[in-house]
Amino acid sequence: MVHGPGTTEARSAGARIWLLALGMFAIGTDLFIVSGLLPAVGHDLRLSTAAAGQTVTAFAITYAIAAPVLAGVTSKVDRRVLLFAVLLVFAVGNALSALAPSFAVLLTSRIVAGAGAALFAATASAVAARIAVPERRGRALAIVYAGMTSAIALGVPLGNAIGNLSSWRWAFAFVVLLALITAVGLWFTLPPLPGSAGTGIRDRLTALRIGRVPTAMLTTTLWVVGTFVVYTYLGSILVTVTHASASDRTWLLLAFGIGSFAGVMAGGRLADRTSPTAGLTVTIALLAAVLAGLGIAVHSLPGAAVALAIWGLVHWSSFPLIQHRLLAIGGRNADMLLALNNSAVYIGQTVAAVVGGLLVGAGLLSRLPLAGAAFEVLALLALAVSAGAHRSATHPETEVAHAERQTATS
After folding, report:
1. Contact (CB, 8 A) for 152 and 260
2. Do 406 and 242 meet the contact criterion of CB atoms below 8 Å apart?
3. CA–CA separation, 6 and 108 (whole Å)
């Protein structure tokens, strides 16, 4: 029986989706909070800034590698049980971070937390799409990732405030609390959701042979590079180009966070009303234009505020469209593609940091927005190639079946 949007079942699904969003809020807070706490962490554990920064790298690399691997290994596990278990792992990782007496323990704790975060993010997206009514699937994906974007606007400032009032250790404890609340809530509200019976990691890796998958992952990576080649060094741009004070930078970043939240919600509605490929073409093209204009806008505070809000809006509106598209491409292996997509995001952030660093080292800080726009144009080209691969196939499921037959005969 299909339930309409106004039924009790649909409202129950909505409450569960918001719980998944709370879990993503915890992950986003954990992901972004560390950079602001690095000086205090380094001081307490007698580490250099560079050494303390490796905790961020450990989390990110683990997240990127663990997402597809763990998604394949746990494919047969009931989704309700899996979400509960990975949230406990994530909570344990952050508890270890809060109690870490040494750099070795702290680094280990970030690896544990990164593994839990990676699997939760991929599983939460797939579960949200599974329990939502079909006509609100894009909105459900948007709500889940609104938790992540909310962390940019609210979670990080809140975590830093906790750290400033007491200790950086209590900021990690705050993340533990969020994770445990989410775990308990999902355990008592989600029904049993069987995994993919009879499909191991080898079978699920057939998703990599679907014609559009490589270019879809490349689209995500280039889309991320375009934004993060600028965002990674945004603080330096606001100081050097905008001449913003510390208090000015706080509300300017808040403008980006608010725009991001609005964007991910708008992207979800767009995904439910239009072709994900068409919508993604529009949003990435707009993002290229916004980044091209950002270099001019940041020369004044009002201009920077407006540009950052629009930038967050346009960038994050693409994400639900990307996920909605992957659900259609992947079929029964869609959660594997969502996991791979999370890896593509972190690869993009790593590439962005390297490329941005090279440009800044060459004295081209003010040209970063133009570099970002160029990467978005490349993302559009990758999307066009991916769409062309789709037109060469009669139906998305045809590609899945073809990939599975190739594996079966190999």
Report:
1. yes
2. no
3. 46
- Rounded CA separation 264/227 (Å): 15
Dig out the tokens for 388 from the structure.
């062309």
Q: How confident is the model at residue 35 (pLDDT cuts 50, 70, 90)?
A: low
Domain boundaries, the chain: 1-198, 199-410
Tokens matching residue 124: 């939460």
Q: Residue 281: its pLDDT value, please?
A: 95
Q: Judge whether 300 and 242 are in contact, CB under 8 Å.
A: yes
Using pLDDT thresholds of 50, 70 and 90, give the confidence band for residue 377: very high
pLDDT surpasses 60 at 393 = no
| pTM for this model (two decimals) | 0.74
How crowded is residue 55: how many other Cβ atoms within 10 Å of its Cβ? 27
Residue type, 360: V
Which CATH number is 199-410's, of 3.90.25.10, 3.40.50.300, 1.20.1250.20, 3.10.20.740?
1.20.1250.20
Q: Can you spell out the DSSP letters for 88-126?
A: HHHHHHHHHHHH--SHHHHHHHHHHHHHHHHHHHHHHHH
Tokens of 53: 């920064």
Q: What is the mean pLDDT of the chain?
A: 83
* Interval 194-220 mean pLDDT: 71
> What pLDDT is recorded for position 113?
95
Which CATH architecture group holds 1-198? Up-down Bundle (1.20)
